[in-house]
User: Fold AraC family transcriptional regulator from Vibrio mediterranei.
Amino acid sequence: MHKLNSFSRVAEREYALSTGSLNLLYYDLPKDFHDEYRSYDAPRLCTILKGTKSVSVNQSQSFQYNRDQFVLLPPNSNIYMKMPEYTKALVYEFDEQMIEGVSQRVADTLEVDSPTALESQSFAVNSIDKRIDKLHTRMQEILREQEACMDFLIDLTGQELVFELLRNNTCQSIISNHRSHPISKAIRIMNSPMGLKMTLAQVAEEVGLSQSSFSQKFKAATQLSPKQYLTQLRLQSSKQSLNKLSVTDAAYEAGYDNISHYIRLFKNAYGLTPKQYQRSLIHGSH
Assistant:
């Protein structure tokens, strides 16, 4: 698993071990390293494998935690961290589908409430109990041994971790809040087939924000403007469709009515026109 030596979002996206439902981030940070950290649009379970972190969440009073504790961050948290000593950390970033899937299946048993609005300073600091420690250790074994069906085993262990977090009232509030967060809802909408064809004004209206507020909050959470994010989604969707649809149909399915505009965007993103990309598929070069 790739070691991250900074909190760069670009590096996180490139080097996270992702199953589609869970991102795992492995940080290897020297003594006295310090920087600002973000949780972006998903809850993060922060654990320490070795060392200590000094942390301030959303300008809270600074505190330290070690390998016997975890910190659960809600989406869009701002954190300042300093490493008093050489530190290794493993962070779990839970996808909406994983949270929703576990929550629905155990809602009656655990009495999972409807999400309520959290204050921006909400976060959890807890001791790692035996059940969470067992799952955390199991995850490290899966990563270390590169087991067959690794993605399946990571997701399975991740689901159990979500279940254990839902058993804790404070953690449950943070986990459940993710479902109602306006930017999380917007991302969920934009990733749907219908959302690809919606205007940004329509998406903003769906999540109850003005366009200016939506744009500001979205960029703060994702480091991309809503337009940039939706363009990426549309182009990725059309790229997947080009192996079975014509260029015109692929563009339309991805929400583009202006074919010339679509072709220009596609070439800027991938260095090939859609038609050239289709030919490369036939010749097996992609």
